[in-house]
Specification:
The chain is mainly α. It has one domain. Helices cover 81% and strands 0% of the residues. The longest helix is centred in the first third of the chain and has 36 residues, at 3-38. The radius of gyration is 20 Å and the shape is elongated.
């Protein structure tokens, strides 16, 4: 594992912890809002907090799932393949995933820039949304880099076996 990959994995682990904290905070805010409504009290701004904070949890969950290889795949089919065929199939799949996430990252970069310039805010609390869009975009770019590294590794395995 190279320096770049180790650095990315450290960032992802740090971000994953941050994401878990924000998901727990979202759960706490929503539970508080539901309990408050039981007593006919409305907690203003809970939707704004939930919609912005959950982005951090989702963004880093995607990365952590890729690093720990916790995504869904057809193991029955993959396990029946030979080592070389499997390596090539995984390299093609990883390269295609990388392409899809590059398109998503590119769209996210454009949207983040447009919304940042326009000063997009949440409806009630008037929180700027741009930092949360930037975190999402950063996670997408990081995922692209990670997938590219994995694709190269799979190609090397396919050639060497």
């Amino acid at each position: 594992m190279g320096f770049i990959e180790k650095t990315i994995i450290r960032l992802i682990n740090w971000g994953g912890t941050l994401g878990e904290i924000f998901v727990a905070a979202v759960a706490g805010v929503l539970i508080t809002a539901v309990l408050a409504r039981t007593f006919h009290f409305v907690v203003p701004g809970t939707y704004d907090l939930a919609e912005t904070w959950v982005v951090i949890g989702i963004a880093f969950s995607l990365l952590k799932a890729e690093v720990k290889d916790h995504h869904t795949r057809a193991d029955i089919l993959v396990n029946k393949m030979g080592r070389r065929t499997r390596a090539w199939a995984e390299s093609i799949n990883t390269a295609l995933s990388c392409f899809v996430w590059m398109v998503i990252a590119w769209g996210s970069i454009k949207l983040t820039y447009e919304k940042w310039v326009n000063g997009e805010e949440t409806d009630f609390l008037r929180l700027p949304i741009a930092p949360f869009r930037a975190i999402w975009t950063f996670a997408c770019v990081l995922l692209c880099v990670l997938l590219a590294i994995k694709a190269v590794r799979h190609i090397k395995e396919g050639v060497s076996k």
